Amino acid sequence: MQRPRTLWQADALLLLVTMIAAAGWIFSKEALAGMPPVGFIGTRFLLAGLLLAGMAWSGLRQLSRSALYRGLLVGLLFSAAIGFWVLGLAHSSHLGESAFINSLGILMVPVVALLLFGEKPPRPTWVALPVALLGFSLLSLNAGFRLEAGQLFMLCSAACFALLINANIRVVRHLPALPLTALQLLVVGVVLTPTSLLLEHGSYQLTPAVLGWFLASAIPATALRFFLQIKGQSLTTPSHASVILMLEAVWTALFSALWFGETMTALQLGGCGLIFAALLISRWRRIVSALRRSPA
Question: How far apart are CA 176 and CA 58, in angstroms?
Fold first, then answer.
């Protein structure tokens, strides 16, 4: 049984991770003012991957050829997920709303498992999905009965992340976390940076401010975030960690309100609230379990 001190350390680390991840949305949006989306995310993950690879070099050298192939495969899925994410971010006019749409990927995980692997979803999933669908419908209604480009890209990103999580569970579950994370980030950088050079022809406007936002998104918001997340998850159970990590969308909405002065209409508030309620429903058993495990 885990000691109370260890549980509190895990909770504190994972809570910090959600705040850093949410700040990363702000850093990225600011950096996109002077960089093309795919080029930004490719170079960001390439730099972060190199930093983590330096810390995980001995572990990377010990990976078997089979493990490397599996890591590369998952890295390709990660490239698709993060590519759609950055396009959604570039087209988004409201970061808080986008963060909640992106969090739908958590709810899609059991659906993807059912469709691809025939794995029966837990019962709360069937309650959570209609609630999430209603929430997303309210967000669509806010745009006048249509999907905006940013919403569509974020929805595609959520679907890719759901596929990625399933692949992580089944393909690379038993591989060491830090070398695997470094490998995945490097794959994203190696795939998306040349893609930007081929497809994006806009000029970079690397002012000192844009370069600063880029470095903030690459170093604390990516390299440090994933390092702390791995550390926090190693101190607790996956179910306990997943409950805390759901807070990223909430922090993103709060930070974007403070930084950009974003406000939400009644439809947006209702839609985001329903999506968050759906996340809670889908994780209800884990939430109850986490509360029981928490020290008094």
Answer: 11
